[in-house]
Design goal:
The complex is a heterodimer. Chain A is mainly beta. Chain A is 12% helix and 41% strand. Chain A has four helices and 28 strands. In chain A, strand 24 and strand 25 form a beta hairpin. The radius of gyration of chain A is 24 Å and the shape is globular. Chain B is 69% helix and 0% strand. The radius of gyration of chain B is 18 Å and the shape is elongated. The chains are: A mainly beta, B mainly alpha.
Chain lengths: 415, 178
């Protein structure tokens, strides 16, 4: 079957699975959102749960709907239009973020012709869904299509590739990978719809690539970080510090405002920076950046993020930390505040490079550019690297990027 | 936006603006949610309802109404992810087909199609990309904005998803001819 015909078949099958338009019952519930107290409605899940209050509310809802219609605006449809209701106070808007948006963002297009950021070294025919680098070695994970196994691979500095097939019913749920030299750590993000198994952190020997320890967790792994003596695991509502060998939990701390509960804010990105552990907590563009002590996991500071709806994650290394967004990156200072913002239009991925940052930006036509951004936020290097698939791993002057079914090894060009 | 007896009476009123913006997005949002949630219509309705509540709570944060569709879609996708991550809900297969497609018996037959089964076995991230691509007709850049992933990641996920679907269909065809 040709690709076009196959895509048409995919489209048709998707439409069969999701054949129905939004039901009137949904519109009934949504029609009441603007006139009910959002926080209470959110907790209860729908207007149907409001109970007797809804009987009074229904009468005034008619007025509201009429008001919308009389204003020439399309009201939300559904049986709610015939219901009744009482106007409820509209809550205050969320607190204004304390972080200020820089007034001027350095523009890449304003830069003159830049020197290359990297040069290509070698190409390896290997796909990877997760990559991590350490001691000039690249480690990768490719989950097999069956979902019950994964190939773990290592590319050594001399170019030797070592593979190990790992049979694991959780392989399809591998979501995080970090390496600390002697060990690899994989975190899972189980989809409970498809399995009753708990999430885990898995340790593998970096020499043999075989599994040496596993530890069940109470929730999905949002992020991992590791050094020689510790592994940190971020779950949706807490951070764990675990023993790097046994994976026994040494300490844990709950993150304020973060919850495993549906609809509540949760930890959504995590990194280990030079001045502590960093994580963001939030939902729907209302995020807070926390800085934690790596040892006792105490909270050292917090910052409300500006433009949080654009934030995509955190990137950190031993010498620097950055907040990444759809179209910019921003340095994080030693006290956990965001500082210098640099425009990186269509940012695909980023990785720390000492005090600098390597940022992959999409420039159209299936091609990406690898930018090198110095600690002051200036773009100091730029190389077109092809279609990378948004994966990057960096260690020292070694940079690995995906390119279709291949991993390409690059070397940083010293400025 | 605070006050007793609030009434949306003009296009500038947040409630009216919200209603005007969310209505055109509902059908696609519901279809994409249904797809990501493996065909579970009740879960999809709850997911879109939750997403709309969240969107309303943070409506004041939306600076550019022209970006409402991408912003809302991203909240819907996240809402679906939350439900999959936090709920122990069973997959919609086999005996559930009547509930899934009651109005259209032919769809129940089609559900046994290898492609549909393979779609339901995709990871949620892969289903989100496939759903936005083939149900919402989004470009790769639009999918990136609506999932919070980077465009390269979206391309990669779409590539892996289509490859997995084709492999599943091929395997099914081999079974049939065996």
């Amino acid at each position: 079957m040709s690709d076009d015909r196959f895509e048409e078949a995919v489209r048709a099958a998707a439409r069969r699975i999701a054949a129905q338009p939004a039901p009137d019952s949904l519109r009934t519930r949504l029609a009441l959102i603007p006139t009910s107290h959002p926080h209470r409605a959110a907790r209860r899940g729908s207007f149907a749960d409001v109970g007797l209050g809804g009987a009074i509310a229904a009468a005034v809802l008619v007025i509201v709907i009429v008001a919308i219609v009389s204003a020439g605006l399309p009201p939300l449809r559904g049986p709610a239009a015939a219901a009744s209701g009482s106007p409820k106070p509209i809550p205050s808007t969320p607190a204004t973020p304390t972080e200020t948006t820089p007034s001027a963002i350095p523009s890449i297009s304003a830069n003159p012709v830049l020197p290359d950021s990297v040069k290509q070294v070698a190409v390896y025919d290997f796909e990877a869904e997760l990559m991590a680098a350490s001691e000039s070695r690249l480690f990768g994970v490719r989950v097999e299509s069956s979902g019950g196994s994964a190939v773990i691979f290592r590319i050594d500095p001399n170019g030797t590739v070592t593979n190990q097939l790992v049979q694991d019913p959780l392989a399809a749920y591998y979501s995080s990978l970090v390496v600390n030299g002697s060990s690899l750590y994989i975190g899972t993000s189980v989809i409970s719809r498809f399995t009753d198994q708990a999430d885990e952190i898995i340790r593998l020997d970096s020499a043999t690539l075989s599994v040496t320890a596993r530890k069940k967790l109470r929730g999905a792994v949002i992020g991992l970080a590791a050094d020689a003596d510790n592994v940190w695991v971020a779950l949706a509502d807490r951070v764990l510090r675990v023993d790097p060998n046994s994976l026994a939990i040494r300490s844990t701390t709950a993150i304020p405002g973060a919850s495993l509960t549906l609809g509540e804010p949760a930890v959504n990105s995590f990194a280990h920076g030079p001045d502590g552990l960093l994580l963001t907590v939030g939902a729907a563009g209302n995020d807070v950046l926390y800085r934690l002590d790596p040892t006792d996991l105490s909270i050292l500071g917090q910052t409300n993020l500006a433009d949080a709806d654009q934030v995509t994650g955190l990137v950190a290394g031993a010498e620097g930390a950055w907040l990444t967004a759809a179209d910019w990156v921003q340095t994080i200072d030693s006290s956990g505040h965001t500082v210098t913002r640099t425009a990186t239009p269509a940012l695909q991925a980023a990785a720390a490079d000492g005090q600098a940052l390597l940022a992959l930006v999409y420039q159209g036509s299936s091609s990406e550019v690898l930018l090198r951004i110095d600690e002051a936020g200036g773009v100091v290097g730029s190389t077109e690297v092809g279609d990378t698939g948004g994966r990057i791993a960096v260690d020292g002057d070694d940079v690995w990027l995906l390119n279709g079914p291949s991993v390409i090894h690059w070397k940083l060009v010293t400025p | 936006m605070t006050g007793e007896g609030y009434r949306p009476t003009s296009p500038d009123d947040p409630a009216a603006s919200f209603a005007r913006l969310v209505e055109p997005e509902l059908d696609v949002a519901y279809r994409v949610a249904t797809f990501i949630l493996g065909g579970d219509l009740l879960e999809a309705e709850d997911a879109v309802n939750d997403a709309a509540l969240r969107a309303w709570q943070h409506f004041a944060d939306l600076r550019d109404p022209a970006r409402f569709d991408a912003w809302f879609s991203r909240i819907v996708v996240n809402s679906c992810r939350d439900r999959l991550r936090q709920h122990r809900v069973r997959p919609i297969t086999g005996s559930d087909t009547e509930r899934l497609h009651t109005p259209d018996p032919a769809s129940a037959i089609a559900l046994s199609d290898a492609l549909e089964r393979a779609m339901l076995a995709l990871s949620p991230d892969h289903r989100a990309v496939v759903g936005l691509r083939y149900l919402a007709d989004c470009s790769l850049d639009e999918i990136a904005k609506r999932t919070g992933a980077r465009t390269g990641t979206v391309k990669s996920r779409l590539h892996f998803a289509l490859r997995a679907l084709r492999a599943a269909v091929d395997a099914d065809a081999r079974e049939v001819t065996r």
